[in-house]
Amino acid sequence: MRRLVSCLLASVTLASVTLASVTLAAATSVMAQAVPTAVVELPALERASEVLFWSQDQREAGFRAMDRIVPHRAIAAGGTAHPLPQGEPLAIDADRFILEEKVAGLLVLQDGKVRLERYGLGFGPEGRWTSFSVAKSLTSTLVGAAIRDGFIESLETPIMQYLPELSGSAYDGVTVRQLLTMTSGADWNEDYTDPNADVARFFEPHETGGMDPTLHYMRQLKRAAEPGTRWHYSTGETNLVGVLVSRATGKTLSGYLSEKLWHPYGMEQDAGWMIDAVGQEASGCCVMASLRDWGRVGQFVLGGGKIGDTAILPEGWLAQATTKQADYGEAGKGYGLQWWTNDDGRFSANGIFGQSINIDPERKTVIVILSAWPTATGRSPAREAFLKQVAEALD
Q: Above pLDDT 70, what percent of the chain?
């Protein structure tokens, strides 16, 4: 399974900013203050893909400072934070997991109460950590909100209604649903080891003739399969979804996310969303938020997408979004509407270098893990074992 994201790629042409000195710190426990141990100077990003080859120190420093490296647009929070009361401490030893998995933040909520909250890598409760591909699930949620608000007709609406520049391309006949499930049939190379892959070239500066750069690149792709017949991971398509939502609503994604979720639900801190060279949010990647606010995102979804008694999403939206809509060939798992699904009812939002929001409706739990893995992708048996350990402790 490829839980991949193009992450920083969208803003590199604007981001020759060097983070001159970022302080690292030793691992910390809940609410402890970080103790400086080293200073790391992050290089300017001449190519977007360079972030994939940062040293471990640069990852640990940079992932909590991305808004100082590449441009972000603010997502305004509300005045009163949604409460996360302290629950009974979870009887589990997380120290080894935190150290070995390079965990910056770990939060376990059950019934909306904090059962476990830990920090490491010099990160703390006041900091914000980049989401990488976890942002895809937020983008999907904004599609649901836009359908309920009447800005987008339905999941079955052809995307050409909102993105006519794609006419005559591989996206002819593709629906909103097929974009969200990554079954458009358009060819796309998301190999991060290949400097000529689409995911690497997508955000390179190029002449667009005044067209939005995302649309200009995506309209050149070839069709590899008929729409709806093949699942194929494509961060470019989530960026297309973001352009579609902005077009349909007439709002920035950051503004719409603040309006529908961040402000009314009561996020504790303003967040930030990375923008590209024309000011469009890179909707497949890179929202910066605190550990607790990521927990609140999970709690919002676990609670049915409501704020108080007000539904933000169409009836039945989350049932579709968080259950298998496409099969990518791994037994017991699937892909929903920009959520990774399990046949047992659990689902998650995932990002490279070990970011995840894991939601278990049966146990009424949200588990957020923010990390700086040494590699961008891959399966982590240690994480799977830890999630199982948490479930057993909760049971």
A: 88
Task: With beta carbons less than 8 A apart as the criterion, state whether 220 and 27 touch.
Answer: no
- Please give the Cα distance from 339 to 328 (Å, whole number): 13
Q: Which residues of the chain have pLDDT under 70?
A: 1-40, 42-44, 48
Q: What is the pLDDT of residue 44?
A: 63
Distance separating the N- and C-terminal Cα atoms of the chain: 28
**In this structure, are residues 110 and 334 in contact, taking their beta carbons and an 8 Å threshold?**
no
Q: Kindly provide the b/e burial profile for residues 321-355, where b requires at least 16 CB atoms within 10 angstroms of the residue's own CB.
A: bbbbbbebeeeebbbbbbbbbbeeebbbbbbbbbb
Going by C-alpha positions, the residue among 271, 237, 277 that lies closest to residue 255 is 271
pLDDT in tens, 78-99: 989 999 999 999 999 999 999 9
Q: Which tokens go with 60?
A: 């640990």
Give me the pLDDT at residue 182, please.
98
- Under the phi-then-psi rule, with left for phi > 0, alpha for psi from -120 to 50, and beta for the rest, what region is 114? beta
Is 7-70+90-134+285-394 in CATH node 3.40.50.300?
Answer: no
Residues 238, 286: Cα–Cα separation, whole Å:
12
The domain spans of the chain are: 7-70+90-134+285-394
Tokens of 382: 């240690």
Say if CB 105 and CB 43 are below 8 A apart: no
- Tell me the CB-side half-sphere exposure of residue 359, using CA atoms within 13 A: 28
